[in-house]
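Work package 3, deliverable 3.1, input record:
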Amino acid sequence: MEIRKKYFADERNDDLKEIGQSRQRSDALGHVKGITPFYADRAIPGLLHIRMVRSPHHHARILGIDASRAERHPGVRRVITARDVPHNVYTVLSLINIGPEDEPVLAFDKVRWQGEPIVCIVADSERAAYEAAQLVQIAYEELPAVFDVEEALKPGAPLVNEYHGQNYYRYDSGESRKVILGDVEKGFAEADFILEQRYQASPIEQAPTETTGCVVVPDQNNRFTCYTGTQAVFFTLDNSSVILQVPGQQLHFVGGTAGGGFGGKVDCTTEPIAILASMLTGRPVSYIYNRYEEMQISSPRAAERIYLKDGVMKDGRIVARQVRCYVDSGAYSRHTPYGTQKAAAHFPGPYTIPNVRIDCYCVYTNRTPSSAMRGFGVTIGDFALEVQMDKLARLIGMDPLEFRFVNAYRDGDMKAHHQPTEGAALIECMQEAAEWADWPVDPRCMAMSSREPRRQP
Amino acid sequence: MTRKRGRGVAAVNYPTGMNLGGDPTQALVHSTPTGNFMVTVSSVDLGQGMKQILRQICAETLGVPSERVVVDTADSDTGPHCMGTFASRGTHRAGNAVIAAAREARGVMLEVAAEMLEVSTDDLETDGAGNIHVVGAPAKAVSVTDTALAAHFQKGRSISGRGMFLVPRSYPSPVDGAMKPATCYAHACTVAEVEVDVETGEVDVISLKNVYEIGRALNPRMVEQQLVGGAWMGISHAIYETTEPYYPQRDHRGVDFNEYLMPGPGNLPRTEVVVLERPAPDGPYGGKGPGEMCANAPIPAIANAIFDAVGVRIDTMPFTPEKILRALRGLEA
């Protein structure tokens, strides 16, 4: 790696003693030698283990649950169902007043995705918990399921989540989070060319080495210590407090060293139920996802479908960009209403376009709930935007890199979400790339600066 | 076997923080009589090295070597509040909180040293090696350890500081979406070179040249580790990974690392990184949050390189051999 100091040197103090120095990480040796303790690295006497009974159906009504054989199975200490959970229906973002509460900790009337937890087995050993989980009998009435974001929005589509009443998240701006700048129709009318394209991405797993989970130990004074791999200690503590209807003062969370997260450990799916199991049994309890659960039960990156429509001039200027983005939230909200907003804020990319219309939809389907992942609300949008940029450049017969220079945002340019651009450096990144990768561009591009105002055409 | 080469480019930016939810983080800093300084936060180190970065930020602000700083993360009984480590906010938010706490602690440290040396605090500076001395007179000095001992046992002072960094919540306008969604933006441009086998549809990424603008490389080797790892994650997203390869159908789902495809060492190309630094005025020593961004630009750069190589557009991620072969057959038809 090289740091090219010639750019923005006048904005920097390079004379610091610790900052800018390649010190060895304080935790490097521990990680490499395998002696760093993670949440599961604790030998706790009398530890109980959790195994979930999960829905085999994508969408079904629950007609009855018979856990009597599981309760009698040797080694089983407790069987937990929805009625044992003090505040069963929750949503993680209620902490920042984004509702409605739309997800049960344990399903009771319906299951909305294959793998949804219904019955929680707490047993002396993992084996006993696995065996008992096989003995729970649940009667279902299967319901029609919907898996495609646009199918889900059609009239007559099966209703996925009754707490929303429709298959999309209702923002204060309506069925989508909207961003509007200028007049996109006027821009299209002026454009020399128009290109409309469809992009799609499938769900992606965060795939941390350490799977999601926690270990809970009953402490003194009716407190409970939760050792967890969460990425957000207080956020998870506060959500556990809501679900368990106990004051946060009774909860002690210990974490801080996670074996990879990538956004996959902010959902609070294991801590509340493990604390509840510890409260009900008076014993330490561990709830750790196996690799199957990490892959198919924990929230993935949302699938997205994106339609981009651009109006472009022969000289390379993009004069209008319209975005319709459908984010597949799966059966529940989790963090996806937030990620969808973040997507709306991110479009139309790091380019200055006078006429923009963005509609981002958070859509419910009968799929594993999606949630945060590295690049939340941005990664898939960047894929669509940057492939579109390549197509537009070729459409007007311009070099793809030069085409980006023409449209790149600069300090002071108004963004689609009505904020002036500050601290831009896209032009300089592209100049360095052009030089380094031997990708020749017009000398006018190499003379541009993010700090010089754009000349109005 | 026919392999065709092509290259593609992509340029992106990335927001730091979660302004749309309100974004507070606190930090505490205190000295012990050993001369060490403790940073207490409830932020989480995910493996990216946040503890080390907070250590260096604290050391720079206090004016002591980073070996004298110990970072204690994420115990809700001892650490002050943090929203969590996500949204590229860890270094930026927790870093700013640590700076504020370390500044306050440094103020007390210099007051105690000034009393010991019988000078004004304005006349003192730190040498970054564990000593406090009079400006222009390095011999008139006291060590940080002696200062910490004196503060506790003789002067009755606590060398400590409280740090808070809060970005108030921004509410998007329901009419036109006007909002302040992030604090500062990192930037990237990637040039990818690929080889596509037109008989099997397989893509090999031959090289990735990544230029990242990240505000400030607070620890260059750690920056490199994160940027290279992120670029590999981008390659993985582009041509291997998905839990549902036939989305929206739900079959063929990977359930373990045998079925869920990711690149192995033999599939990873020469990955080169160049860093530019345009400091963010509100960032800790100018730092932005590039951790998430670095996976993004390689994906479209690879898609564009595939088009350059064989003339097909794959507009659905990931770009599997099956999709490429089907597109190539479509081209022939």
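Chain B has two domains: 3-16+182-332, 19-167.
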